[in-house]
Specification:
CATH superfamily: tt1808, chain A
Mean pLDDT: 83
CATH architecture: Alpha-Beta Complex
Structural class: alpha+beta
Strand order of the largest sheet: 3-5-6-7-8-9
Number of helices: 4
Largest sheet: 6 strands, mixed
Helix content: 25-40%
Shape: globular
Distance between the termini: 10 Å
Number of domains: 1
CATH topology: tt1808, chain A
Low-confidence stretches: 190-197
Number of strands: 11
CATH class: Alpha Beta
């Protein structure tokens, strides 16, 4: 997430008033997180996850799969833009404002060097506190998924399969981790120590 501004405790209103300059601005417990535009591999990772989870969410009647940018509202001290998230379905009259969506049931963030601190040490505990039932941190360089739930003090490290068991679903969502990263990287493969930006 770049460098945090810890000298000033930001409000949601202040963050929403920042210029549209290509950066992603997020607010967690008054801390401003700033991220530059993501690199292509980040976007491939988000889209390949969307391709796999969207049919499952639709089939299971769990709601909607949405992508950043978004201004999810967990209160005055929060404004978050998860890479991918699942929210309960709402009536068409409620589609105009992010505040109507509440806390997602599932959130996935794709790591890059500029977002690692924010995703792991700032947003992760905030998502746990606010009741996000399932939080995945996807690491394209290590080709693994960290799976977090609200009470976890350590993640489940998923190298082969990552499984989400949402309440009310007949069957779980199962991500074949190796197949997923093959789809993300294609024939290129991850360069050890490379920078995803």
């Amino acid at each position: 997430m770049g460098m945090p501004n810890v000298a000033h405790r930001w409000t949601r209103e202040e963050v929403l008033a920042l210029p549209d300059d290509g950066n992603r601005y997020e607010l967690v417990d008054g801390e401003l997180l700033v991220s530059p535009a993501p690199r292509p591999v980040h976007q491939f990772a988000v889209l390949r996850l969307y391709d796999r989870i969207m049919p499952y969410v639709a089939r299971s009647g769990l709601g909607e799969v949405l992508l950043s940018p978004a201004d999810l509202d967990f209160g005055r001290r929060y404004l978050v833009q998860p890479d991918l998230f699942v929210v309960a379905g709402l009536g068409r009259h409620q589609l105009m404002e992010w505040r109507h969506y509440g806390v997602p049931a599932f959130v996935a963030e794709v790591l890059s060097p500029s977002t690692s601190r924010g995703d792991r040490t700032v947003k992760r505990p905030a998502f746990q506190r606010t009741g996000v039932a399932e939080y995945w941190i996807i690491d394209p360089m290590a080709r693994l998924v960290e799976r977090w739930q609200p009470a976890d003090v350590r993640p489940e490290i998923c190298l082969e399969r990552a499984v989400w068991r949402p309440n009310g679903a007949v069957e779980p969502f199962v991500l074949d981790v190796a197949e997923y990263f093959r789809a993300v990287w294609g024939d290129v493969g991850a360069e050890p120590g490379g920078d995803l930006g």
